[in-house]
Amino acid sequence: MTVVGAAASGIAAAALLAKHGAAVTLSDVRASVPEAVPLRAQGVALELGGHETATFTAADLIVMSPGVPAEQPAVVAARAHGVPIVGEIELASWWLKGRVIAITGTKGKSTTTALTGRMLRSAGFHVTVGGNIGDPLSGQVEDSTPATLHVVETSSFQLEQTETFRPWIAVMLNFSPDHLDRHGTVDAYGRAKARVFRNQHETDWAVINADDPATVELAREARATRRYFASRGPLDHGVVIQDGWIVARTPTATDRLVPLSAIHLIGPHLIDDVMAAAAVSTIAGASPAAMTEAVEAFRGLEHAMELVAEFDGVRFVNDSKATNVVSALRSLESFSGGVVPIMGGRFKGGDVTLLRQPLAERARAVVTIGESRDLLRSAFAGAVEVYEAASMSDAVAQAFALARPAGVVLLAPACASFDMFRDYADRGRRFKQEVARLKDAVSAGG
Length: 446
What we know:
Layout: E1 2-4, H1 8-19, E2 25-28, E3 45-48, H2 53-57, E4 62-64, H3 73-80, E5 85-87, H4 88-93, E6 99-104, H5 109-122, E7 127-131, E8 149-153, H6 156-159, E9 169-172, H7 180-183, H8 186-194, E10 205-209, H9 213-218, E11 225-229, E12 238-242, E13 245-249, E14 254-259, H10 270-284, H11 288-297, E15 306-311, E16 314-318, H12 325-332, E17 339-344, H13 356-362, E18 366-369, H14 373-380, E19 386-388, H15 392-403, E20 408-411, H16 424-445
């Protein structure tokens, strides 16, 4: 069997297959993958420096890491030879003993996944959390019991290679154009996302954002029992906001779940993530007290509307996970004014002109970085002043000067990071490092 891609999910998949007695080759285009070397002791062969077509066409099964495009020539050749091709979460699901809670959407997956796990743990359940964040699902198989709840962040890249993957609870948070550089069209991206509902039965659950028409449409053919949540639109049956509380409403009763005062997150859009987590937790049987305890202690995730520092009257917020246009839009909408966003990187598609009006209303200026600087300058012309920076250090310094006094420097790139950084986390950490350096310099100068 051949596993493609030696990142965390590929390594976990190779180890899982080897443990079950398979002859495994782990293939990666990189010439050196130190973290994969220990697999040799488990009998896994490493094929590094490129994908050999013969390795793929001779395989009984190919397991794809989510970061590997399905159009790789060796993968295409294997498909033409009739070799079965699945994704890593599909493979892992074959051996799981516990039930899966799969969370997807364009924005908010990581926050909702982490918070759902915290709520369920607070309620006393045996929980694992991972998938697209944390431990790959293949790495959770050994800890899986019939009582385990596997809370899994699932991306479109992971879902597009699923065949039998069946979550007990599938969550669709929202939907907007993203990853068009990979999927090609919005429809293809939507079809990949909708696969989260594909194998569910009537006894399963689909948790759906009723405020988002595109999400409702993607879930239209789901056979699972629906549980809606909405922070803005009216719902007679579902999870809504009422009198300062997140509540579960039915035609005959309204049960208080979490007070809004317990939420300590920047950005009103993150309330939707709390509502989704609460909707899942009510289905699983968590008490309102357990949910509230988890929310009270939750200060958000790194790189997701993370308050980094505040000095000289300026706040610095790291939303490096805002890698698409709509995510950046939600970031901007979290502030009433005085914002100087740092934007740019490798553009993934979407309509950047959606940001013009919010920038005109809220931003003092924009500082652009990376490959998309010219694209953003053109898109924002006439709406806001646009400055260019050659590095994160330069971007932070410029944004700080523009944000004074009493403004906000917001890293909300609306783009992927791969032109300048290893990934969004690397970009976010670099932002925080530069903010720390700037703070030290300002303190020294003052």
